[in-house]
Amino acid sequence: SVLLLLAGAQALVPSHRLAARDLARLRAVLERPFSDVRAAYYSIVGLSSLGVRVADEKAACKFIKSHVDSSSVESLFYAAQSIQVLSGCEVTISNETRELLLAAVSEDSSVTQIFHAVGALSGFGLPLASQEALSALTARLSKEESVLATIQALETASYLSQQADLSSIVEEIEDLVARLDDLGGVYLQFEEGIETTALFVAAAYKLSDHVGTEPAIKEDQVIQLMNAIFSKKNFETLSEAFSVARAAGSLSQNRFHLPVIVVPDGPAAVSHQQPVLRLQVTNVMSQLLTQVSVKLDQAKSVSSKATVLQQLPFVLSGDFFELNFMNVKPASGYYDFSISVDGDKRFIANKVELKVKVSTEVGITNVDLSTVDKDQSIAPKTTRVAYPAKAKGSFTADSHQNFALSFQLIDVNSGAELIPHQTFVRLHNQKTGQEVVFVAEPDSKNVYKFELDTSERKTEFDSASGTYTLYLIIGDATLQNPILWNVADVVITFPEEDAPSTVQSKNLFVPKPEIQHLFREPEKRPPTVVSNTFTALVLSPLLLLLILWIKIGANISNFSFAPSTIVFHMGHAAMLGLMYVYWTQLNMFQTLKYLAILGGITFLAGNRMLAQKAVKR
Amino acid sequence: GRLKALDAFLLYVLLTGALQFGYCLGVGTFPFNSFLSGFISAVGSFILGVCLRIQINPQNKGEFQGISPERAFADFLFANTILHLVVINFVG
What we know:
The structure holds two protein chains of two kinds. By secondary structure, chain A is of the alpha+beta class. Chain A is built from 17 helices and 23 strands. Chain A has four domains: 20-255, Glycosyltransferase; 261-359, Immunoglobulin-like (Sandwich), CATH 2.60.40; 362-498, Immunoglobulin-like (Sandwich); 560-616. Chain A has helices spanning 2-10, 20-30, 37-49, 57-67, 73-85, 95-104, 111-124, 130-143, 147-157, 167-178, 194-211, 219-229, 238-252, 458-461, 528-552, 563-584, 588-616, and strands spanning 181-183, 187-189, 258-259, 261-264, 269-270, 276-282, 293-301, 307-313, 315-317, 320-324, 333-342, 347-348, 351-358, 362-373, 381-385, 394-397, 401-411, 422-429, 435-439, 441-442, 448-452, 466-475, 483-492. The longest helix of chain A is centred in the last third of the chain and has 29 residues, at 588-616. Chain B is mainly alpha-helical. Chain B has one domain. In chain B, helix 2 runs antiparallel to helix 3 (69-91). Chain B is elongated. Classes of the chains: A alpha+beta, B mainly alpha. Chains A and B meet through helix 15, helix 16 and helix 17 of A and helix 1 and helix 3 of B. Chain B: It is found in: Endoplasmic reticulum membrane.
């Protein structure tokens, strides 16, 4: 049983299958009226994979015969394959057509063409040289490496005689499996998409069945492929629907791998009223499998990890496999069921883990309400209440007395003590609408206790004195009868000085006080007087300079009125003026432009002037 | 004569720069870019003036063979133009 546990822990469980609804959708797409021979092929062969016959086979046969294009190998393939499925549909093939098909089976045709030609010849029942076809196929396959071409090669080989050595093609299955993308350990699919993945599954099993060799696909990989293919619930094109139908057909009927799916009837839960766990076993197409044996390997409690049941078979009753779990009187809670399905060596995913919930009803007993004197000078007054009655009179809790509550919770059916998840004591102020909720905790003997001390709890109550209604709330996922019980009224009095003048209901949805934005404070500047004084001060050295120059005797007398001199001085002055204008108005680009002009003039004039000066010297 | 005039100019520039610096110490650095601009103008002008003085000083004639006083003055004007272009850009 240890080995069984390991196997159960490692095996993947299918997460997707073709449920009845999905099948209906698939059929709806495939049962649309035919638009051309290819659509007819998809519908007829797709439906037959699901085990469904076309509604009007005679009309379908007529359609194909009238719409087939005898000059196209592809059209002939669709016609041939469809005719094989339809009963009582015969067609005569002319010599020309036969020659066309045989000629297409050569190294010069693409893999798709070879596939269609071989499929057509096989479908029409015409003789075919398998060995030559195989060599053409192998030669062509080494040149075309696409996934779709390889898949078509697999299916082509399934039409060839078993006497030819098809092992090289069979090996391609393993290579293709290596090219699948693993998505999160749950899905396995080609990057080309689900349609390609589904076609691969169909072709791989068709070929494997034909040659009698188990395909090189591991059990976990089959389940991952299943998950990917059947995760598609909407079929946009007929070819998509066709591929999924063929994959479903392959996985429900082949010689090697049959995935099984275990479906509980409704939620996997049992109780005193419903003691029987019912399961259905189906294949991927939701077809019931009843020739199987379903066994409970073991049932373990999730909380205590104790094994409650071992090696018990389920009993087949109609469509369901049943087991009465309540016979062993399990405690309420969750249980891990390890179930195995046997009956066919081909079964995979036949060991499943199921979480089963056992529910029960809770009863409250020994409910005692008491007022306990803080000084312990007076004996506590205890009143017993029985659910669902309300205690008569009210209890008080104030600075001298505490209020106390104690009770026990038991399983009504077994009498065992219960510790549910939710055991709350809710106090509701009748006047203000305030409510305060506490958790009642069990002690070591599983007796629940709650005590209200006004001095300790005044913050929760906002010191609001008044009459409070006390409710007991008991709940849990495994309880069928959650309890909301108005037990008693409690008058709570808080010390006067702490009581708020008005009790505001803590309304979270009123506008909060507005926040004023603080703009950036401007820098502290000196008063205007100071800066003006400084400006005057800073200009004073200029005065000094002029005075000094006069004293030194800068000779303005030497000023010659030559044109270049005048131009120079004007230009220079203009440049200085430009600086001022730049400061006030212009940007760098404009300034540079004007500066270039003025500077040029000034330079030329200045050059002449200085040259003249130099000459004079 | 010329040197004395230049010296007077240099004194003027020095005083202007010192006054700006003192104001900044007293009142604060706001706006800092204006202070820098003015101060750099003073310092830069002083340096260029000193360069001009060295170049036109007859005592240094031996070291500046290829540069006539007129050329030195022209250089002085050109450098000042560029300096004050940047200064005006920065003063804000």
